[in-house]
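In the lab's daily routine, each protein ends up as an entry in a very long ledger. A line of letters takes care of the sequence, but it says nothing directly about the fold. The fold becomes a row of whole numbers, each drawn from a learned catalogue of backbone shapes. The protein below has been through that process, and both of its lines are reproduced in full:
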Amino acid sequence: MIHELLLALSGYPGTIFTWNKRTGLQVSQDLPFLHPSETSVLNRLSKLGSDYIRFTEFIEQHTGHVHQQEHHTNQPNQTGLHGIYLRAFCTGLDSVLQPYRQALLDLEQEFLGDPHLTISHVNYKLDQFQLLFPSVMVVVETIKSQKIHGCQILETVYKHSCGGLPPVRMALEKILAVCHGVMYKQLAAWMLHGLLLDQSEEFFVKQGPSAGGAAANQEEEEEDLGLGGLSGKQLRELQDLRLIEEENMLAPSLQQFSLRTEMLPSYIPIRVAEKILFVGESVQMFENHNHSPSRAGGSILKHQEDMFAAELHRLKQQPLFSLVDFENLIDRIRSTVAEHLWTLMVEESDLLEQLKIIKDFYLLGRGELYQVFIDLAQHMLKTPPTAVTEHDVNVAFQQAAHKVLLDDDNLLPLLHLTVDYQGKDSKEATGPRDGATPPQDTSPREIPPTGWAALGLIYKVQWPLHILFTPAILEKYNVVFRYLLSVRRVQSQLQHCWALQMQRKHLKSSQTDAVKWRLRNHMAFLIDNLQYYLQVDVLESQFSQLLQQINSTRDFESIRLAHDHFLSNLLAQSFILLKPVRTAQTLSAALFHLSGCLFNKCFCPQVFHCLNEILELCHNFCSLVSQSVVPLDERGTAQLDILVKGFRRQSSLLFKILSSVRNHQINSDLAQLLLRLDYNKYYTQAGGTLGR
């Protein structure tokens, strides 16, 4: 019977020890010569045999997965488990079972040498597995029941290895080390060669954009919090103004690779995973780009691939995972890649010159160019756009460039103005984007009221600067571009009205004319100071800080972070970062409810809304003045009265917001704008209301 027992414990049941799928291995009940205590001991040992049989079945099922499909085509795999991490787990599990198999062999030798040994001896020899097998079986059942896949297996084994039983911990750490071997191989392929070897989607890096939860959480984010019209999305933006979180807000991200965070084990921080993603993306970009080695400066890893591969292999051989050693190696690889990218971008691709081009064209640094362009394109873009508007506008842009002696044959072909004559979604056309990417639908799109509302600028970024100036980043620049151009256009129209005033000053003036020209003067006062604030206090200040940060580092990631902060500050200090709240009532509620930092940030959209209303009023005023050559009739006078009241109301509201912020001694952006608008205390002396 001892040999029957050893065979059963080895996974080969017979007539004495029977096998049942539900109950497992048990001693046959019709054996009269067994004492109940012996039956109890044998059943206790049979539990080890049951676990061993289930272990071996699990191993055979998943390590021979392909062969099973060939032999059992009519019995599809019910669990759906597959992948190289599962195979590695099975390999590690098989190695953990090896001491058990060796113990059975040793017992057989001992019984052959001494036939008088009892069942208690077997129980004593195998007692070490009575704790191990049930604990490992819990891990196996968890993988089977929850269909744990890929790197999630690492997390499952790691969590169960954190117990207080040394045999269980050592066994699971051994399995985890085998599974880590797969991860290190994938890391080596990804970080050293840019290859994503992941057919079964098991790695924590994937191809394609990240599956953000913006759509799922849209209702929660848009829920009004009762704070002056402040939504959940706005509150999160107030707490964290990181530019990266807004990429899906303005344009779909075209990033080729992203993190699959649900696959990332908890003992690998997200910061380390992001470094791994950055290195692999950079190497992959170099490997796939048909760029000459002399231009690219050779290998992006500076021909240290073999050394880094040896370091990864050394970590793979360690029995225990060390986050310190792991992160140190990742940092070394990242630093090598980042420094090479810095050299390639700053020195070879002349990043500073590219930033100057961005500033000149997206941020209206070449003011004389856009002044001429506004004059040439005004008649084309003041009406709703058509299919030929884009062509005509680009011709006007080329003519404006020639007039200001901008004849760079290498630069101008890279710039192209776009006009979306089919229109944009109404949500997008009303102002800055207010959250996640809106869901796609087939609803008809509104035609823009004018070509100016549909105008955009495309810059063809050259390799490798495209990893810094992504389509999402350029779309953000387009948001700033359209806003700055609208301010510049209104300023130009008000100057044109002044020219008309000078032409008519010899004519007899009426009371209405005095009201009209005084309103123009107040409008020009506000717009000129707003323009000075945007171009000097915001753009020039932030741009000089960006250049200083670029020149003080040799790390590409630092450059990207500095550029992200630069663009984020542009959006924030231009007050176009957050969704505007559209009514004065919600402003009053915000004034009542908010204080401190939240008070500070909440008024940026309020200021943006006021400024937009003021720009619209100025535009309507200029249209009224330009169309009326003779003194205003009754209808024109009524329109002028509406414009005067509207401008008074909006200028008063703007002054109250800025003064409230100054009184609380918060938000230097709003305080600086107030300083520009009220530098000579004229605004204050006018009672905070212009247009009287």
